[in-house]
Amino acid sequence: MRTRWFSKLPAILCILLLIAVAVPFTGGCTTAMEYNIGLTQLVTHPAMEAARNGFIDALEDAGYVEGENVEYDFQNPEGDPTAEQTIAQKFVDDEVDLIYSFGTSISQQCINAAEGTGIPVLFCAVTDPVAAQLVASWDHPGENVTGTSDMIEMDSTVDLILDIVPGVETIGTIYNSGEVNSQVLVADLNEVCDALDIEVVEATVSTSADVLTAAQSLVGQVDVIWVGTDNTVVSALESVLGVCEENLIPFFAADDPSIEKGGIACLGFDYYDVGYQTGEMAVRILEGESAEDIPVELGETFSYTVNTAAAELYGLTIPQDILDKAMTIYDELAP
User: Fold this and answer.
1) DSSP-derived secondary structure letter, 255
2) Across the strands, what pairs with 205?
3) How far apart, in whole angstroms, are the C-alpha atoms of residue 258 and residue 215?
4) In the predicted model, is pLDDT for residue 17 greater than 90?
5) Quick one: which of 124, 135, 152, 165 is 20 to 30 A from 320 by CA?
6) Measured at the alpha carbon of residue 211, what is the angle toward residues 205 and 213, in degrees to the nearest 5?
7) Distance CA 243, CA 218 (A)
8) What is the pLDDT of residues 119-164, one digit of tens each?
9) pLDDT tens profile 314-323
């Protein structure tokens, strides 16, 4: 006699019930945080804040949502070398899944602390990571390290200054001589200006407290002042702006937030975009790709940012062809 399937229905229901009960205890659902990411930046700095937001947004767009499957531990040493080392070691001791760092020295500390642990370190917007000894090369970074660069086109930057302030003979610049990024940029600035017979007057600082005195030392010596992506100087940007405005020395910078605050123009990066790009690299790492197999990437969004109100303050007019090419135009000074 043939046995029909429905005669065994009670037994089937029992088996299905047992499976349903067992699934939650065999990995069928996820409850706790899956990833813990350490976030750090050298100082409080508008560009760094923008980049961090971009990084987090990129992960969220890829499905890594804070409070659901990722947790962030944000630490800011405010430029204190001892705190940088402490933060880097904290991330390693906490066995985070990935470290994101903005700033050369804090990135160096994180890389040193994470060496041999298998924890990937992803630096953001480091101008020359090879010169800073963060990576062996752009294409083959090295053990569990990669990131993004905000290397500036210095020849185009000087051309921009000359287009807005014709006849410039001296350019003043302020930078932290201990920041490798700044050393690289100032060397490039000197090389470009030497070819144009323009003198570069340098004023160096060690801390943000030195910035005002450095800016004052350039008064009467230079036609314009330009500041690169120097974290120490930009963290005290108000001091530079105050000196420039009081003495009518046109001020140029290298990042969007500095232009919004009172710089005339720059050819540089939107740091939110650079942070987002770095976040996309983080997604690749979290999904199994090795950091050392991902080449260092140059920021993809490179454009003019201008401030017509700042230009007017110095009695200057930004040429229409530059305005036409600008991605961002500010028409007032940020408070």
Assistant:
1) B
2) 176
3) 16
4) no
5) 152
6) 100
7) 9
8) 999 999 999 999 999 999 999 999 899 999 999 899 999 999 999 9
9) 999 999 999 9
Q: Are 59 and 283 in contact, with CB atoms under 8 Å apart?
A: yes
Q: What CA–CA distance (Å, rounded) separates 205 from 233?
A: 8
Name the residue with higher pLDDT: 3 or 210.
210
Cα–Cα distance measured from residue 309 to residue 335, given in angstroms and rounded to the nearest whole number: 13
Amino acid identity of residue 318, one-letter, is I
Average pLDDT, the chain: 90
pTM attached to this predicted model: 0.79
What token pair was written down for 192? 């470009």
Residue 227 Cα distances to 43, 235, 259, 262, 292, angstroms: 17, 12, 11, 12, 32
Report, in this order, helix, strand and coil percent for the chain, each rounded to 5. 45, 20, 35
Residue 48 CA to residue 64 CA, distance in Å, equals 21
Cα–Cα distance for residue pair 20/245, rounded to 1 Å: 72
The CA-CA-CA angle for residues 329, 330, 334, to 5°, reads 155
Residue 185 backbone phi and psi in degrees, to 5: -65, -40
**Considering the chain, what percentage of its residues have pLDDT values greater than 90?**
83
Domains annotated on the chain, with CATH: 35-151+271-298 (3.40.50.2300), 154-268+302-330 (3.40.50.2300)
Residues in the chain: 335
Q: Would you say the C-alpha torsion 172, 78, 106, 98 has a positive or negative sign?
A: negative
Number of Cβ within a 10 Å radius of residue 52? 24
Can you tell me the distance from the alpha carbon of 206 to that of 210, in angstroms, rounded to the nearest whole number? 7
